[in-house]
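quick one before i forget lol
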Amino acid sequence: MYCLHFTVSGRVQGVWFRQSTKDTALANGLSGWVRNLPDGRVEGVACGDENGVLQLEAWLSIGPELATVAEVISQPIECDECFSGFEIR
């Protein structure tokens, strides 16, 4: 299992970014979570097949139609937690 922690900055809140991330993650067979941060960024963890995680990572730099992504910071992590599904927190 491959896990990735990510933060996305730019115009990423109030533009369906979390729901679109969830939809994209599920389409790639991933589990994990995504949430808004108080500073306007979006944060998440995605786990699954490495190819699926990398596809989500590439999508994060684009985001949904109304988003304007300024920066994606991501790094592989050791995943101590098992996730069932992909949730919006």
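fyi The chain has two helices and five strands.
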